[in-house]
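Need tokens for this chain, all 392 residues.
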Amino acid sequence: MTKFNFDELIDRHNTHCTKFDGYGSFTSDYDEIIPMWIADMDFATPDPISDAIRKRLEHPVLGYCIPPEEYYTTLQDWFSKQYGLQISKDDVTYTPGVVAGIYKLIQCWTKEEDGVTICPPVYYPFADVIHGSRRRLVEAPLLIKDERYYIDWEALDKALAQSKILLWCHPHNPGGRVWTAEELQRVATMAKQHGCLVISDEIHADLTFSGHRHMPFPSVSDDAKEVGMSLMAPSKVFNMPGVIASQMYIPNPRLRDVVFPYMVQNGLAHASCYTYSAVIAAYKECGAWSKACMQYIEENVELVRKYITERIPRLKMIQPEASFLIFLDCRELGFRTTDELASFFVEKAGVMLNDGSTFGTGGEFFMRLNVGTPRSVLEEALKRIEKAVNAL
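Here are the structure tokens for all 392 residues:
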């Protein structure tokens, strides 16, 4: 029996929590909506992380700080243990969030109106940062077959010919796809041929399911090292997104000698006074917690798969290979607009999900479900959805 209690119900209301306090006001057939949208989990953050923050806050001065040597050695140990990679201290640097890192990398390497490729449906801030940077959005939509996503190689080749950067989601969000070494190597070679850099968002890397393996993009081939930059974080796997802590991994000195000073010059290379303590505690002391959590999540995913197959067959699911997010295919429900579909889940099922259309081309009439929650909550949500779908 696990020593971690993922079945515990924790009240997150009135804590300035985005998931529970930040989704607005909606009319519903249920008195209380179950929020299963934004990508954080409802489990207690591991004790060593909270303890490390409290310990740092015992000091009376909350001043500027520098990354301690232990921060780098901890990252080196994690890369070795998780990915079988021996990295140098010089290969990594802190960045305040993956999206912020992507935004600055786009600014660093491109100019206005340069093309940036994405492969939708994909994490919606990708398009936001491209538009916000006044760069030109170029799409190479993914293909879907047997409820699994695949790369459209012809579309990607055409898109990269118009672009300076490829924003890559690895593992894929919202589809949970763990890209194979062969796929990643082909992406890298194609990017290099077109003179494109690859910015790989790997925030869900450490949520990869059993039977699959995550490989940081720059590590998969010489071409990938030549063009690739990874952004990673402890935020998802240890459920600590409120601690703004991510890291860039850039093993190519030609790239990092441009990027790392650029981050310093833009004031983005140093964390809050307690962040390093939290990150060190997470990677050094919480491995057992993350393994237990991943087992629980995989069981939740299997619960959803079995439930909708047997009781809500009009729904289909993209079978995830990583993360606590499931992309539900709702096209058989027959709604005319994506707004109607999103409203249906809130108003009739009392469940707040992410509207798949926000993930761009190919996401229409899908919904994203967050299963990083106690099983009793997930079961109640599925019962509500079943009842609402059967009433259509």
